[in-house]
Amino acid sequence: MSDTPILHTARTEPDQLQMDAWSNEPLLVSLEMGGANWPSSCRAGTCRTCVGQLHSGTVRYALEWPGLTMEERAEGYVLPCVAYPCTDVVVQQGY
Ligand code: FES
Predict the structure, then answer these.
(1) Cα(68)–Cα(48) distance, rounded to whole angstroms?
(2) Model confidence at 63, in pLDDT bands (50, 70, 90)?
(3) Does 1 score more than 70 pLDDT?
(4) Of 7, 51, 52, 87, which has the maximum CB count within 10 A?
(5) Per-domain boundaries in the chain
(6) Cβ(42) to ligand 1 under 6 A?
């Protein structure tokens, strides 16, 4: 993967906010910068306060094992505080 940051777009559901989402910034930071009122606590991938579900797009994790099960990840659940967008994403807050 290239180290050059890539600019993607993030959109939140159901409030339809749209914001820039750089590939080298945690998705949570982009959501906050874009005005989303997104809950967070640990900001380290363990407490799950920030959990959301991807409706489209993909993310990667800098952590080896963020606090989600394989099944949750397969269902599209993400922890935006430690997730980095690989594509444009549409994400819904909550579990
Ligand atoms: S804020 Fe704790 S897991 Fe994201």
Answers:
(1) 8
(2) confident
(3) no
(4) 52
(5) 7-93
(6) yes
Q: Please state, in angstroms and as integers, the Cα–Cα distance from residue 33 to each residue in 36, 78, 81, following that order.
A: 7, 18, 13
Evaluate: CB of 63 within 6 angstroms of ligand 1: no
pTM: 0.94
Task: Report the C-alpha gap between 42 and 27 in whole angstroms.
Answer: 14
Percent residues over pLDDT 70 in the chain: 98
* 89 within ligand 1 shell (Cβ under 6 A): no
Residue 3 has pLDDT above 90, yes or no: no
